[in-house]
Predict the 3D structure of the following.
Amino acid sequence: MHVSLATSAGRASRPNEDFIGAVPGAVVLLDGAGIPGSEALCAHGVAWYTHRLGGTLLGGLSRADGRDLAAILADAIAETAAAHRATCDIADPSSPQATVLIARAHRGRLEHLLLADSYLMLEEVGGGVRVVTDEREVAARRECAAPLAGSTPGTPEYDHIRASCALALRARRNQPGGYWIAKDDPRAAWEAVTGSHSLDELHGIALLSNGASRIVGPYGLTDWRGVRDLLASDGPSGVLRRVREFEDQVRGGSDALVPDDATVAHYRLVPCWSTSSKVPYGSGEGRRRTTS
């Protein structure tokens, strides 16, 4: 198994709030939510949160004990929350938080877990491409933004409605009927989108943060098959380069388009067999999640 990684900060003046990392048989991608005002709530910041949570997740996955991915995430959220509960207002809706995407090869299956809007691309043996994401945040954002229709951007009325929409979206975070994200409550892990696929049916997978997925939407530079081909020819850095080149062209020196942190992991499922046990390296042992 071979993993290649690339990440790019959206703005040089701000730390990269994405996290990417891998251990044998598993890869983790987090996209930190840089909410305005969070600096006053947490002295550490969003980048610290994603790196702390991501490192804790990798530690749990490196044990290769076959534990449920949601259980590993729940423990990581609890441990990270405990690390700054005494100094920061972690219960505030705007305190640091992150999307989570975990992919793990285990017992001949590729298991995945998603919280919020990152993207898992599956490269199928037959040449097809499938994309898995958690659509609940996008759906909630669309519903909360509906009152903006018909308002004129830049007007006091528009700004007032937009502020109300932001509060409405925040109220749906980590609530039944809303959407779920890693923050301070370990119970969010059990609301994640999960599933598994036979490794025999896959050539590889790719994990993309929201900023990297812009190459497909909204930028429309290619489709998901094109992303697969670009990864095969130029790797994750090639995807990020296309995104940044387009953003540079569109901005034309203005700040109308604000680049986001962008991260890609490409996980090629090349079998590595143990000479003693004939078990795929990194497959682990123990119970697996129900398949889909």
Remarks:
- The beta strands are 2-8, 18-23, 26-32, 98-106, 109-115, 119-124, 129-133, 193-198, 202-208, 262-268.
- The radius of gyration is 19 Å.
- Helices lie at 46-62, 69-84, 136-144, 156-172, 210-213, 224-251.
